[in-house]
Structure formats: C-alpha cells, structure tokens
Amino acid sequence: MKIPSNLKKGDCIAIVATARSVNASDLKEAIQLAESWGLKVVIGSSIGKIQNQFAGSDAERSADLQTQINNPKLKAIWCAKGGYGSVRILDLVDFSSLQNQPKWIIGYSDVTAIHCHLQTLGVASLHAQMPVGISSKTETSASTLRDVLFGKKMHYCFANHPFNQTGKVSATLMGGNLSVLYSLCGSASFPKLENVILLLEDLDEYLYHIDRMMQNLKQNGVFKNLAGIVIGGMTDMNDNRIPFGKTAEEIIHEYVSELKIPVAFGVSFGHLKENLAIPFGKEVHLMVSEKGTEIQF
Asked: pTM for this one?
C-alpha cells in the first residue's frame, strides 16, 4: 500500500467539491484552521459551482479533482462536503499518478466511494472531518486530522460497549460509509476485503435498509475473511410505521456476533459530534477488552 508523505508547515493542500455544491463562504473556518497549522490552501474550481444538487457537472467536478491530483505542489486534497456525487466521477478521473506520488485524499461519508476506489489501487487515504461544518464538531475532530496529516502516532480509547467482541489484531483498515460501500458491491471500485479491519458508519437510513445492506455484505462473503470490525456512528436512523424492532447496532450485532474476530462498537468515527481522523490503507492496531477499545496507528 502506498502511504502519502507526512505534511509539514508550508505545504499546500487543495479543497475540492466532489459531490454536493459548496459556497466559498462555507469554507472560511476550515481555511483559517488549515492556515493556523501552517498550510497553504488552494480553492478548487468546483467550489461555488452549482448544477442542481451537485457542485457543477460531473465533467467539472472530475476536472477539478484531476487538476489537483496532477498538481505536484499539492500534498493533500480535502473534499469539501459529502451528500452524493463522488461515485459519478470515479470513471472520469485518472488516479494512477497517486500510485507513484500518493497524496492524502481526505473526507468521509460520500467520499467513501473515492476511498474504496483508492483501496483497489493500493493507495492510502484519510477518513476524517470535511471542511463544511467543521466548526460544529469537537476540537478533537480537527486536531486529530492535523495530527494524522503531520505524522503523529495516534492512540484512541473508547468506552466498553455491550456488543463488543474481545480480541486484538493488527491489520489494514478499510471501509467507510455502509450505504456507499453497499452501492459499490460488484463494481471495479469495491475493494478486496480480506484480512482487513472493516470500518462501517452511516446516517439517515431506514433500519430495514441497514439490515438489507448487511445481508448483502454477508451473502457476498465480505465477513468471512475479516480480521476485525469497527462500528462508528449509526446516526439519525429512521423507522417505519410498523417498527423494525431493532436498533441499527442490534441489527449489525446480529450479523457479526458469530464471527471469531475483535469487534468494536461505539467508536467516534462518522456522522457524530466527534469524528476522529483515521487512515484507510494503513495498518492499525485494534485492541478490544472488557475495559473498552483501543486503536493505535
């Protein structure tokens, strides 16, 4: 796996919109934050563009991302916002240069489509808070992004959860948003999930759909060869008039409870007030005990 270089003061990063439209004014806090870390910020041409929900057409968004990928002066690309749309540009972008000169692509949620595609190419990326809305998150959400980018060794600790399964393992972390991962099943952008730790999180889904997606992953054999599982936020779930009868965590627990691998619930990744930064494609150390969960990398 190709790991991008650590950032240092004076390095340049770009902010681009791969999905929904973003106003430049919505980036003010994120730009100030990055500059306070000593970074220079380039604003991509997709920022401010609007085509219905999207930040311009697929051609415009992909051209912006391609420009930033090809720019040798950039050390990282920070995706501005999620929503939907990143998957629409995967086939329009040539990511191959990142295999020789990797740079951090940062984001979560809809950006999972890009993360997964990069995982198939053997390029690491960063699951972390995006610029839009960063001021509404905890300070730790931002500081862990800075620390990971600048190469600090990280050690996260989380409280015990009744659905946790104890054990410890060191393996590459992959995954992201459950809905996006599910949508990529059968495509060339779906990564090979063998001997890896799988991270899953989601937002605003119906409970029956959580079950449907987990059933799909099960029937595709995704769970058979995993080294571990980490369940982040399952936030703002929806139910039908006739209740499904289980929470999202209970649904997921039903699918993973028979696996003889460490499983951690209740960790701060995803659509949560605290959204900690964690790399995909890089080895992490997962330790789940009766005292709680520890993740180091």
From this structure: 0.97
